[in-house]
Write a structure and sequence with these properties.
Layout (H helix, E strand, L loop, with lengths): L2 H18 L8 E2 L30 H11 L2 H23 L5 H12 L2 H8 L3 H17 L6 H11 L3 H14 L5 H11 L1 H10 L8 H4 L9 H7 L17 H24 L1 H23 L1 H10 L17 H20 L5 H14 L4 H6 L3 E2 L3 H12 L5 E5 L4 E2 L9 E2 L2 H4 L4 E2 L4 E3 L2 E3 L4 H10 L4 H7 L2 E7 L5 H5 L6 E4 L3 E5 L10 H44 L14
Amino acid sequence: MAAWRRTIVLQWSLLLAVLVGLPWFRPGFVLSYDMVWVPRLDLGRPDLWGLGSALPRAVPSDAVVAVLGAVVDPQLVQRLVLLGALFLAGVGGARLVATAGLAGRTAAATIAIWNPYVLERLAIGQWPMLLGYAAILWLVAELRRDDPRLRTVVLALAGTALTPAGGLMGLAVAVLAGARFGLVRITVLAALLNAPWLVSSFLRGSVRADPGGVEAFALRSEGLLGHVGTAFSLGGIWNADVVPEGRGSTLVVVLTVTVWALALLGLGVLARTARPDLVAVLLVAVAGLAVAFTGWLAPTALADLVAAFGPAAVLRDGARYLALVAPALVVGFGLGADRLVALSRSRGLAAAPAVAGLLLPLAVVPALADGFGGRLEPVQYPRSWETARLVVERSTVQGDLAVLPFTAYRAPSWNAGRPVLDPAGRFFDRPTVTDDRLVVSGRTVAGEDPRAAAVRRALASDDVPRALARLGIGLVVLVTTAPDADRAARSVRGLELLGGTDLRVYAVEGAKEVGVDDTDRAVMTAVWVVWAVVVGAALAGSATGAARRLGGLLTSSRGSEGQPAEQRPRHVPEP
Protein backbone atom coordinates (compact mmCIF):
# COMPACT_ATOMS: atom_id res chain seq x y z
CA MET A 1 0.00 0.00 0.00
CA ALA A 2 1.24 3.49 -0.80
CA ALA A 3 2.84 5.40 2.07
CA TRP A 4 0.18 8.10 2.00
CA ARG A 5 -2.53 5.51 2.57
CA ARG A 6 -0.69 4.10 5.56
CA THR A 7 -0.42 7.64 6.89
CA ILE A 8 -4.17 8.15 6.55
CA VAL A 9 -4.81 4.98 8.57
CA LEU A 10 -2.47 6.24 11.30
CA GLN A 11 -4.11 9.66 11.34
CA TRP A 12 -7.61 8.18 11.41
CA SER A 13 -6.73 5.86 14.30
CA LEU A 14 -5.22 8.76 16.21
CA LEU A 15 -8.29 10.91 15.56
CA LEU A 16 -10.64 8.23 16.90
CA ALA A 17 -8.44 7.75 19.98
CA VAL A 18 -8.54 11.50 20.62
CA LEU A 19 -12.33 11.61 20.19
CA VAL A 20 -12.62 8.97 22.91
CA GLY A 21 -10.10 10.66 25.18
CA LEU A 22 -11.04 14.33 24.83
CA PRO A 23 -11.42 14.83 28.62
CA TRP A 24 -7.97 13.36 29.25
CA PHE A 25 -6.22 16.47 27.99
CA ARG A 26 -7.05 18.16 31.28
CA PRO A 27 -4.77 17.68 34.31
CA GLY A 28 -5.41 15.00 36.92
CA PHE A 29 -5.91 11.24 36.99
CA VAL A 30 -8.73 9.19 35.47
CA LEU A 31 -10.07 7.01 38.29
CA SER A 32 -12.83 4.52 37.48
CA TYR A 33 -13.45 1.16 39.14
CA ASP A 34 -10.25 -0.89 38.61
CA MET A 35 -8.35 2.03 37.07
CA VAL A 36 -6.30 3.36 39.97
CA TRP A 37 -3.49 5.74 39.12
CA VAL A 38 -1.48 7.50 41.81
CA PRO A 39 1.09 10.33 41.74
CA ARG A 40 3.84 7.89 42.64
CA LEU A 41 3.78 4.10 42.75
CA ASP A 42 6.74 3.23 44.95
CA LEU A 43 9.17 0.82 43.30
CA GLY A 44 10.15 -0.71 46.64
CA ARG A 45 6.77 -2.33 47.25
CA PRO A 46 7.05 -6.14 47.04
CA ASP A 47 3.56 -6.56 45.57
CA LEU A 48 4.64 -4.77 42.37
CA TRP A 49 7.09 -7.58 41.71
CA GLY A 50 4.79 -10.50 42.52
CA LEU A 51 6.00 -10.85 46.12
CA GLY A 52 2.84 -9.75 47.92
CA SER A 53 0.22 -11.84 49.67
CA ALA A 54 -2.54 -11.15 47.13
CA LEU A 55 -2.96 -12.86 43.78
CA PRO A 56 -0.70 -11.27 41.12
CA ARG A 57 -3.60 -9.84 39.11
CA ALA A 58 -1.69 -6.61 38.45
CA VAL A 59 1.63 -8.30 37.62
CA PRO A 60 3.47 -7.14 35.59
CA SER A 61 1.22 -4.17 34.70
CA ASP A 62 1.77 -2.29 37.98
CA ALA A 63 5.53 -2.77 37.76
CA VAL A 64 5.59 -1.41 34.21
CA VAL A 65 3.71 1.79 35.06
CA ALA A 66 5.72 2.22 38.26
CA VAL A 67 8.99 2.15 36.29
CA LEU A 68 7.61 4.51 33.65
CA GLY A 69 6.21 6.81 36.33
CA ALA A 70 9.63 7.04 37.96
CA VAL A 71 11.03 8.82 34.89
CA VAL A 72 7.92 10.47 33.37
CA ASP A 73 5.03 12.32 35.01
CA PRO A 74 2.48 9.60 35.92
CA GLN A 75 -0.31 11.78 34.52
CA LEU A 76 1.42 11.71 31.15
CA VAL A 77 2.04 7.98 31.47
CA GLN A 78 -1.68 7.37 31.97
CA ARG A 79 -2.53 9.41 28.87
CA LEU A 80 0.06 7.59 26.79
CA VAL A 81 -1.24 4.23 27.98
CA LEU A 82 -4.93 4.95 27.37
CA LEU A 83 -4.59 6.81 24.09
CA GLY A 84 -1.83 4.45 22.99
CA ALA A 85 -4.00 1.39 23.59
CA LEU A 86 -6.77 2.85 21.43
CA PHE A 87 -4.37 3.98 18.71
CA LEU A 88 -2.60 0.62 18.62
CA ALA A 89 -5.94 -1.17 18.43
CA GLY A 90 -6.86 0.86 15.35
CA VAL A 91 -3.52 0.30 13.64
CA GLY A 92 -3.61 -3.39 14.58
CA GLY A 93 -7.09 -3.69 13.10
CA ALA A 94 -5.91 -2.14 9.84
CA ARG A 95 -2.92 -4.52 9.74
CA LEU A 96 -5.35 -7.43 9.86
CA VAL A 97 -6.63 -6.42 6.42
CA ALA A 98 -3.32 -5.29 4.92
CA THR A 99 -4.35 -6.44 1.44
CA ALA A 100 -7.50 -4.31 1.43
CA GLY A 101 -7.82 -0.82 0.02
CA LEU A 102 -7.99 2.36 2.04
CA ALA A 103 -11.73 2.01 2.72
CA GLY A 104 -11.32 -1.50 4.12
CA ARG A 105 -8.34 -0.57 6.28
CA THR A 106 -9.99 2.49 7.79
CA ALA A 107 -13.21 0.52 8.41
CA ALA A 108 -11.20 -2.17 10.21
CA ALA A 109 -9.41 0.47 12.27
CA THR A 110 -12.73 2.07 13.18
CA ILE A 111 -14.42 -1.06 14.47
CA ALA A 112 -11.25 -2.13 16.26
CA ILE A 113 -11.39 1.07 18.34
CA TRP A 114 -15.10 1.76 18.45
CA ASN A 115 -16.96 -1.23 19.86
CA PRO A 116 -18.72 -2.27 23.10
CA TYR A 117 -15.71 -4.24 24.36
CA VAL A 118 -13.50 -1.16 24.36
CA LEU A 119 -16.20 0.95 26.00
CA GLU A 120 -16.99 -1.52 28.77
CA ARG A 121 -13.39 -2.38 29.61
CA LEU A 122 -12.43 1.29 29.56
CA ALA A 123 -15.36 2.26 31.77
CA ILE A 124 -14.56 -0.42 34.33
CA GLY A 125 -10.94 0.70 34.32
CA GLN A 126 -9.23 -2.41 32.96
CA TRP A 127 -6.54 -0.53 31.06
CA PRO A 128 -4.13 -3.54 30.93
CA MET A 129 -6.89 -5.49 29.22
CA LEU A 130 -7.26 -2.72 26.64
CA LEU A 131 -3.55 -2.95 25.88
CA GLY A 132 -3.91 -6.72 25.76
CA TYR A 133 -6.83 -6.39 23.37
CA ALA A 134 -4.75 -4.22 21.03
CA ALA A 135 -1.86 -6.67 21.34
CA ILE A 136 -4.13 -9.56 20.31
CA LEU A 137 -4.98 -7.75 17.07
CA TRP A 138 -1.29 -7.15 16.38
CA LEU A 139 -0.41 -10.73 17.25
CA VAL A 140 -3.01 -12.25 14.94
CA ALA A 141 -2.01 -9.85 12.15
CA GLU A 142 1.68 -10.72 12.51
CA LEU A 143 1.06 -14.46 12.65
CA ARG A 144 -0.84 -14.21 9.34
CA ARG A 145 2.35 -13.09 7.59
CA ASP A 146 4.44 -15.61 5.68
CA ASP A 147 7.46 -14.49 7.73
CA PRO A 148 6.29 -13.32 11.18
CA ARG A 149 8.86 -10.99 12.77
CA LEU A 150 10.22 -12.14 16.11
CA ARG A 151 10.33 -8.69 17.71
CA THR A 152 6.70 -7.94 16.83
CA VAL A 153 5.53 -11.31 18.14
CA VAL A 154 7.46 -10.77 21.38
CA LEU A 155 6.03 -7.30 21.97
CA ALA A 156 2.50 -8.44 21.16
CA LEU A 157 2.77 -11.38 23.53
CA ALA A 158 4.21 -9.07 26.20
CA GLY A 159 1.22 -6.76 25.73
CA THR A 160 -1.23 -9.60 26.30
CA ALA A 161 0.76 -10.82 29.32
CA LEU A 162 0.24 -7.64 31.36
CA THR A 163 -2.42 -9.56 33.29
CA PRO A 164 -3.08 -13.29 33.81
CA ALA A 165 -6.31 -13.26 31.79
CA GLY A 166 -4.65 -11.41 28.93
CA GLY A 167 -1.70 -13.78 29.07
CA LEU A 168 -3.99 -16.78 28.70
CA MET A 169 -5.61 -15.16 25.67
CA GLY A 170 -2.21 -14.45 24.15
CA LEU A 171 -1.25 -18.09 24.70
CA ALA A 172 -4.49 -19.21 23.03
CA VAL A 173 -3.74 -17.07 19.98
CA ALA A 174 -0.17 -18.39 19.88
CA VAL A 175 -1.32 -22.00 19.89
CA LEU A 176 -4.27 -21.61 17.53
CA ALA A 177 -2.76 -19.21 15.01
CA GLY A 178 1.00 -19.60 15.39
CA ALA A 179 1.75 -22.46 13.03
CA ARG A 180 3.77 -20.27 10.63
CA PHE A 181 5.92 -19.00 13.48
CA GLY A 182 6.42 -22.45 14.99
CA LEU A 183 4.16 -23.73 17.76
CA VAL A 184 6.98 -24.81 20.07
CA ARG A 185 8.89 -21.56 19.68
CA ILE A 186 5.87 -19.32 20.21
CA THR A 187 4.65 -21.36 23.19
CA VAL A 188 8.06 -21.03 24.87
CA LEU A 189 8.03 -17.29 24.19
CA ALA A 190 4.54 -16.97 25.65
CA ALA A 191 5.62 -18.85 28.78
CA LEU A 192 8.65 -16.58 29.24
CA LEU A 193 6.62 -13.41 28.86
CA ASN A 194 3.93 -14.66 31.25
CA ALA A 195 6.54 -15.84 33.77
CA PRO A 196 6.19 -12.91 36.23
CA TRP A 197 2.61 -13.76 37.18
CA LEU A 198 2.96 -17.50 36.56
CA VAL A 199 5.95 -17.92 38.86
CA SER A 200 4.48 -15.57 41.44
CA SER A 201 1.30 -17.65 41.53
CA PHE A 202 3.35 -20.83 41.91
CA LEU A 203 5.37 -19.39 44.80
CA ARG A 204 2.21 -18.23 46.51
CA GLY A 205 0.94 -21.81 46.73
CA SER A 206 -2.62 -23.07 46.72
CA VAL A 207 -5.44 -20.63 45.97
CA ARG A 208 -9.01 -20.80 47.20
CA ALA A 209 -11.55 -18.87 45.16
CA ASP A 210 -15.26 -18.29 45.64
CA PRO A 211 -17.29 -20.47 43.22
CA GLY A 212 -20.17 -18.04 43.73
CA GLY A 213 -18.25 -15.56 41.63
CA VAL A 214 -19.08 -17.61 38.53
CA GLU A 215 -22.69 -16.50 38.56
CA ALA A 216 -21.79 -12.95 39.59
CA PHE A 217 -19.31 -12.44 36.74
CA ALA A 218 -21.12 -14.43 34.03
CA LEU A 219 -21.84 -13.03 30.57
CA ARG A 220 -24.74 -10.61 30.91
CA SER A 221 -27.47 -10.12 28.32
CA GLU A 222 -27.88 -6.54 27.12
CA GLY A 223 -31.53 -5.92 26.26
CA LEU A 224 -32.95 -7.26 23.01
CA LEU A 225 -29.53 -8.51 21.92
CA GLY A 226 -29.81 -11.52 24.21
CA HIS A 227 -26.76 -13.42 25.42
CA VAL A 228 -25.68 -14.59 21.96
CA GLY A 229 -26.18 -11.24 20.26
CA THR A 230 -24.47 -9.45 23.12
CA ALA A 231 -21.45 -11.73 22.87
CA PHE A 232 -21.16 -11.34 19.11
CA SER A 233 -21.36 -7.56 19.54
CA LEU A 234 -18.39 -7.85 21.99
CA GLY A 235 -20.44 -6.68 24.99
CA GLY A 236 -21.85 -8.49 28.02
CA ILE A 237 -19.76 -7.22 30.93
CA TRP A 238 -21.03 -8.30 34.35
CA ASN A 239 -21.31 -4.73 35.71
CA ALA A 240 -24.51 -3.13 34.43
CA ASP A 241 -23.43 0.29 35.70
CA VAL A 242 -20.82 0.65 32.94
CA VAL A 243 -23.23 -0.25 30.12
CA PRO A 244 -24.71 2.83 28.41
CA GLU A 245 -28.45 3.28 28.16
CA GLY A 246 -30.00 1.98 24.99
CA ARG A 247 -27.37 -0.72 24.39
CA GLY A 248 -30.08 -3.33 23.86
CA SER A 249 -32.54 -1.15 21.95
CA THR A 250 -34.13 -2.12 18.64
CA LEU A 251 -31.91 0.33 16.76
CA VAL A 252 -28.74 -1.14 18.26
CA VAL A 253 -29.91 -4.65 17.37
CA VAL A 254 -30.48 -3.60 13.74
CA LEU A 255 -27.09 -1.88 13.57
CA THR A 256 -25.34 -4.87 15.15
CA VAL A 257 -26.94 -7.25 12.66
CA THR A 258 -25.79 -4.93 9.85
CA VAL A 259 -22.24 -4.96 11.20
CA TRP A 260 -22.16 -8.74 11.27
CA ALA A 261 -23.77 -9.01 7.83
CA LEU A 262 -20.90 -6.95 6.48
CA ALA A 263 -18.43 -9.02 8.50
CA LEU A 264 -19.81 -12.27 7.10
CA LEU A 265 -19.41 -10.88 3.59
CA GLY A 266 -15.78 -10.15 4.37
CA LEU A 267 -15.17 -13.56 5.95
CA GLY A 268 -16.55 -15.06 2.77
CA VAL A 269 -13.95 -13.10 0.82
CA LEU A 270 -11.26 -14.41 3.18
CA ALA A 271 -12.50 -17.98 2.64
CA ARG A 272 -11.87 -17.62 -1.07
CA THR A 273 -8.53 -15.82 -0.86
CA ALA A 274 -6.81 -17.10 2.30
CA ARG A 275 -8.60 -20.10 3.81
CA PRO A 276 -5.85 -20.90 6.39
CA ASP A 277 -6.18 -17.35 7.76
CA LEU A 278 -9.94 -17.79 8.02
CA VAL A 279 -9.49 -21.03 9.95
CA ALA A 280 -7.03 -19.34 12.34
CA VAL A 281 -9.24 -16.34 13.21
CA LEU A 282 -12.31 -18.55 13.55
CA LEU A 283 -10.50 -20.94 15.89
CA VAL A 284 -9.42 -18.00 18.04
CA ALA A 285 -12.98 -16.64 18.04
CA VAL A 286 -14.47 -20.01 19.00
CA ALA A 287 -12.06 -20.23 21.94
CA GLY A 288 -13.20 -16.81 23.16
CA LEU A 289 -16.89 -17.65 22.76
CA ALA A 290 -16.42 -20.97 24.57
CA VAL A 291 -15.03 -19.25 27.66
CA ALA A 292 -17.58 -16.43 27.48
CA PHE A 293 -20.54 -18.80 27.26
CA THR A 294 -19.37 -21.24 29.95
CA GLY A 295 -20.41 -19.09 32.91
CA TRP A 296 -23.82 -18.60 31.31
CA LEU A 297 -24.55 -22.06 29.88
CA ALA A 298 -22.64 -24.25 32.36
CA PRO A 299 -22.26 -22.25 35.58
CA THR A 300 -22.34 -25.32 37.81
CA ALA A 301 -19.50 -27.02 35.93
CA LEU A 302 -17.35 -23.89 36.06
CA ALA A 303 -18.17 -23.33 39.74
CA ASP A 304 -17.11 -26.90 40.52
CA LEU A 305 -13.87 -26.32 38.62
CA VAL A 306 -13.18 -23.11 40.57
CA ALA A 307 -13.92 -24.89 43.86
CA ALA A 308 -11.52 -27.70 42.98
CA PHE A 309 -8.84 -25.56 41.33
CA GLY A 310 -8.73 -21.98 42.59
CA PRO A 311 -6.70 -20.47 39.70
CA ALA A 312 -9.60 -21.31 37.37
CA ALA A 313 -11.28 -18.23 38.86
CA VAL A 314 -9.51 -16.30 36.11
CA LEU A 315 -12.19 -17.70 33.78
CA ARG A 316 -15.15 -16.30 35.74
CA ASP A 317 -15.35 -12.98 33.87
CA GLY A 318 -16.31 -14.66 30.62
CA ALA A 319 -17.06 -11.49 28.63
CA ARG A 320 -13.43 -10.46 29.05
CA TYR A 321 -12.41 -13.28 26.69
CA LEU A 322 -14.48 -11.82 23.87
CA ALA A 323 -11.29 -10.00 22.89
CA LEU A 324 -10.54 -13.25 21.06
CA VAL A 325 -13.63 -12.73 18.89
CA ALA A 326 -12.48 -9.26 17.83
CA PRO A 327 -9.95 -10.37 15.15
CA ALA A 328 -12.65 -12.26 13.23
CA LEU A 329 -15.06 -9.32 13.48
CA VAL A 330 -12.42 -6.76 12.48
CA VAL A 331 -11.12 -8.83 9.54
CA GLY A 332 -14.62 -9.55 8.29
CA PHE A 333 -15.86 -5.99 8.67
CA GLY A 334 -12.81 -4.50 6.94
CA LEU A 335 -12.85 -6.94 4.03
CA GLY A 336 -16.63 -6.64 3.77
CA ALA A 337 -16.43 -2.86 3.47
CA ASP A 338 -13.62 -3.23 0.93
CA ARG A 339 -15.71 -5.66 -1.12
CA LEU A 340 -18.75 -3.35 -1.10
CA VAL A 341 -16.60 -0.45 -2.28
CA ALA A 342 -15.27 -2.59 -5.14
CA LEU A 343 -18.78 -3.67 -6.14
CA SER A 344 -20.09 -0.10 -6.02
CA ARG A 345 -17.21 1.54 -7.85
CA SER A 346 -18.52 0.65 -11.31
CA ARG A 347 -21.78 2.43 -10.49
CA GLY A 348 -20.08 5.49 -9.10
CA LEU A 349 -21.29 4.74 -5.57
CA ALA A 350 -18.01 3.73 -3.93
CA ALA A 351 -18.18 6.59 -1.43
CA ALA A 352 -21.39 5.30 0.18
CA PRO A 353 -20.06 1.97 1.53
CA ALA A 354 -16.74 3.62 2.41
CA VAL A 355 -18.50 6.18 4.60
CA ALA A 356 -20.80 3.50 6.04
CA GLY A 357 -17.75 1.50 7.10
CA LEU A 358 -16.57 4.50 9.11
CA LEU A 359 -19.89 5.58 10.63
CA LEU A 360 -21.59 2.27 11.39
CA PRO A 361 -19.38 1.34 14.40
CA LEU A 362 -19.78 4.86 15.78
CA ALA A 363 -23.56 4.56 15.52
CA VAL A 364 -23.55 1.26 17.44
CA VAL A 365 -21.68 2.75 20.42
CA PRO A 366 -22.08 6.55 20.35
CA ALA A 367 -21.51 6.75 24.12
CA LEU A 368 -17.81 5.99 23.70
CA ALA A 369 -17.14 9.55 22.52
CA ASP A 370 -15.83 12.18 24.94
CA GLY A 371 -14.64 9.73 27.57
CA PHE A 372 -17.89 7.77 27.87
CA GLY A 373 -19.94 10.94 27.78
CA GLY A 374 -17.74 12.70 30.33
CA ARG A 375 -17.82 9.88 32.87
CA LEU A 376 -14.06 9.44 32.60
CA GLU A 377 -13.02 12.94 33.66
CA PRO A 378 -9.58 13.41 35.27
CA VAL A 379 -9.53 14.53 38.89
CA GLN A 380 -6.90 15.77 41.32
CA TYR A 381 -6.19 14.04 44.62
CA PRO A 382 -7.09 16.28 47.57
CA ARG A 383 -4.21 17.87 49.46
CA SER A 384 -5.08 15.72 52.48
CA TRP A 385 -3.84 12.65 50.58
CA GLU A 386 -0.40 14.14 50.05
CA THR A 387 -0.33 15.14 53.72
CA ALA A 388 -1.05 11.56 54.78
CA ARG A 389 1.61 10.26 52.38
CA LEU A 390 4.23 12.52 53.96
CA VAL A 391 3.22 11.35 57.44
CA VAL A 392 3.65 7.72 56.36
CA GLU A 393 6.97 8.38 54.63
CA ARG A 394 8.42 10.13 57.69
CA SER A 395 7.16 7.53 60.15
CA THR A 396 9.77 5.27 61.76
CA VAL A 397 7.10 2.78 62.83
CA GLN A 398 7.80 -0.72 61.52
CA GLY A 399 5.25 -2.82 59.72
CA ASP A 400 2.85 -2.55 56.83
CA LEU A 401 -0.26 -0.44 56.44
CA ALA A 402 -3.99 -1.15 56.59
CA VAL A 403 -6.73 1.17 55.34
CA LEU A 404 -10.06 1.72 57.12
CA PRO A 405 -12.96 1.45 56.53
CA PHE A 406 -12.00 -2.00 55.34
CA THR A 407 -13.86 -2.08 52.02
CA ALA A 408 -12.59 -2.58 48.47
CA TYR A 409 -14.21 0.33 46.65
CA ARG A 410 -14.78 3.99 47.38
CA ALA A 411 -16.97 6.60 45.69
CA PRO A 412 -15.36 9.84 46.93
CA SER A 413 -16.96 13.21 46.31
CA TRP A 414 -13.71 14.53 44.82
CA ASN A 415 -14.08 11.83 42.12
CA ALA A 416 -17.63 13.05 41.36
CA GLY A 417 -19.00 10.07 43.28
CA ARG A 418 -17.65 7.61 40.71
CA PRO A 419 -16.69 4.22 42.17
CA VAL A 420 -13.01 3.35 42.21
CA LEU A 421 -10.89 0.66 43.82
CA ASP A 422 -9.54 2.26 47.00
CA PRO A 423 -6.58 4.37 45.77
CA ALA A 424 -4.98 4.10 49.22
CA GLY A 425 -3.99 0.56 48.30
CA ARG A 426 -1.35 1.96 45.92
CA PHE A 427 -0.83 5.48 47.28
CA PHE A 428 1.70 4.89 50.05
CA ASP A 429 5.32 3.78 50.06
CA ARG A 430 4.87 0.55 51.98
CA PRO A 431 2.83 -2.63 51.47
CA THR A 432 -0.83 -1.82 52.04
CA VAL A 433 -3.60 -4.25 52.94
CA THR A 434 -7.11 -3.50 51.70
CA ASP A 435 -10.25 -5.59 51.49
CA ASP A 436 -10.41 -7.71 48.34
CA ARG A 437 -14.03 -8.81 48.61
CA LEU A 438 -16.42 -7.57 45.93
CA VAL A 439 -20.15 -6.90 46.21
CA VAL A 440 -22.00 -7.72 42.97
CA SER A 441 -25.78 -7.20 42.82
CA GLY A 442 -26.00 -7.44 46.60
CA ARG A 443 -23.90 -10.60 46.78
CA THR A 444 -20.45 -10.61 48.36
CA VAL A 445 -17.81 -12.49 46.38
CA ALA A 446 -15.05 -13.64 48.73
CA GLY A 447 -11.49 -12.51 48.10
CA GLU A 448 -8.36 -14.66 47.78
CA ASP A 449 -5.82 -12.68 49.83
CA PRO A 450 -5.24 -14.58 53.11
CA ARG A 451 -3.68 -11.52 54.73
CA ALA A 452 -6.72 -9.39 53.96
CA ALA A 453 -8.91 -12.07 55.52
CA ALA A 454 -6.66 -12.10 58.61
CA VAL A 455 -6.90 -8.30 58.96
CA ARG A 456 -10.68 -8.56 58.67
CA ARG A 457 -10.72 -11.04 61.54
CA ALA A 458 -8.38 -8.82 63.55
CA LEU A 459 -10.71 -5.85 63.15
CA ALA A 460 -13.55 -7.96 64.57
CA SER A 461 -11.49 -9.12 67.60
CA ASP A 462 -11.70 -7.82 71.15
CA ASP A 463 -8.16 -6.37 71.06
CA VAL A 464 -7.75 -4.84 67.62
CA PRO A 465 -4.33 -3.16 68.14
CA ARG A 466 -2.69 -6.35 69.41
CA ALA A 467 -4.26 -8.46 66.66
CA LEU A 468 -3.05 -6.04 63.98
CA ALA A 469 0.44 -5.93 65.46
CA ARG A 470 0.68 -9.72 65.30
CA LEU A 471 -0.08 -9.50 61.57
CA GLY A 472 2.71 -7.00 61.00
CA ILE A 473 0.40 -3.99 60.57
CA GLY A 474 2.27 -0.98 61.96
CA LEU A 475 0.20 1.86 60.51
CA VAL A 476 -3.51 2.37 59.99
CA VAL A 477 -4.93 5.02 57.68
CA LEU A 478 -8.51 6.04 58.46
CA VAL A 479 -10.39 7.71 55.59
CA THR A 480 -12.76 9.89 57.60
CA THR A 481 -14.87 10.90 54.60
CA ALA A 482 -15.76 7.33 53.60
CA PRO A 483 -19.03 5.60 54.55
CA ASP A 484 -18.83 3.73 57.88
CA ALA A 485 -15.86 5.85 58.92
CA ASP A 486 -17.38 6.43 62.36
CA ARG A 487 -17.67 2.70 63.01
CA ALA A 488 -14.17 2.11 61.68
CA ALA A 489 -12.85 4.84 63.97
CA ARG A 490 -13.80 2.73 66.98
CA SER A 491 -11.23 0.16 65.84
CA VAL A 492 -8.39 2.65 66.22
CA ARG A 493 -9.27 3.92 69.67
CA GLY A 494 -6.16 3.99 71.81
CA LEU A 495 -3.78 4.16 68.86
CA GLU A 496 -1.34 7.05 68.54
CA LEU A 497 -2.40 9.64 65.98
CA LEU A 498 0.61 10.59 63.89
CA GLY A 499 -1.13 13.20 61.71
CA GLY A 500 -3.44 13.80 58.80
CA THR A 501 -6.83 15.40 58.27
CA ASP A 502 -9.31 13.61 56.03
CA LEU A 503 -6.86 10.71 56.03
CA ARG A 504 -5.63 10.15 59.58
CA VAL A 505 -2.54 8.05 60.16
CA TYR A 506 -2.30 5.96 63.35
CA ALA A 507 0.60 3.95 64.74
CA VAL A 508 0.17 0.38 66.01
CA GLU A 509 2.54 -0.42 68.87
CA GLY A 510 4.57 -3.62 68.75
CA ALA A 511 4.26 -4.42 65.05
CA LYS A 512 7.21 -5.89 63.18
CA GLU A 513 7.93 -5.77 59.49
CA VAL A 514 6.86 -8.83 57.53
CA GLY A 515 9.80 -9.73 55.32
CA VAL A 516 9.88 -11.42 51.93
CA ASP A 517 11.33 -14.92 51.73
CA ASP A 518 14.89 -14.72 50.35
CA THR A 519 14.37 -17.66 48.00
CA ASP A 520 11.19 -16.16 46.60
CA ARG A 521 12.97 -12.86 46.08
CA ALA A 522 15.86 -14.52 44.27
CA VAL A 523 13.54 -16.53 42.02
CA MET A 524 11.42 -13.51 41.10
CA THR A 525 14.53 -11.40 40.49
CA ALA A 526 15.76 -13.97 37.98
CA VAL A 527 12.34 -14.06 36.32
CA TRP A 528 12.24 -10.30 35.98
CA VAL A 529 15.76 -10.15 34.56
CA VAL A 530 14.88 -12.65 31.84
CA TRP A 531 11.60 -10.85 31.12
CA ALA A 532 13.33 -7.47 30.89
CA VAL A 533 16.05 -8.81 28.58
CA VAL A 534 13.54 -10.39 26.18
CA VAL A 535 11.22 -7.36 26.08
CA GLY A 536 14.12 -4.90 25.99
CA ALA A 537 15.74 -6.66 23.03
CA ALA A 538 12.43 -6.61 21.15
CA LEU A 539 11.93 -2.92 21.90
CA ALA A 540 15.46 -2.12 20.75
CA GLY A 541 14.94 -4.08 17.54
CA SER A 542 11.64 -2.31 16.84
CA ALA A 543 13.17 1.12 17.53
CA THR A 544 16.08 0.37 15.20
CA GLY A 545 13.74 -0.82 12.47
CA ALA A 546 11.54 2.25 12.82
CA ALA A 547 14.58 4.53 12.64
CA ARG A 548 15.75 2.82 9.45
CA ARG A 549 12.35 3.13 7.82
CA LEU A 550 12.15 6.81 8.77
CA GLY A 551 15.63 7.40 7.40
CA GLY A 552 14.70 5.64 4.18
CA LEU A 553 11.60 7.81 3.77
CA LEU A 554 13.58 11.00 4.39
CA THR A 555 16.29 9.94 1.94
CA SER A 556 13.71 9.05 -0.69
CA SER A 557 11.96 12.39 -0.17
CA ARG A 558 15.18 14.35 -0.59
CA GLY A 559 16.05 12.35 -3.69
CA SER A 560 12.69 13.06 -5.25
CA GLU A 561 12.98 16.79 -4.58
CA GLY A 562 16.21 16.89 -6.57
CA GLN A 563 14.74 15.26 -9.68
CA PRO A 564 12.90 16.96 -12.52
CA ALA A 565 9.16 16.81 -12.07
CA GLU A 566 8.68 14.36 -14.93
CA GLN A 567 11.21 11.92 -13.33
CA ARG A 568 9.80 11.96 -9.80
CA PRO A 569 7.96 8.83 -8.68
CA ARG A 570 4.22 9.20 -8.67
CA HIS A 571 1.61 7.61 -6.44
CA VAL A 572 -0.66 5.57 -8.66
CA PRO A 573 -4.07 4.89 -7.06
CA GLU A 574 -4.71 1.21 -6.55
CA PRO A 575 -7.63 -0.24 -8.47
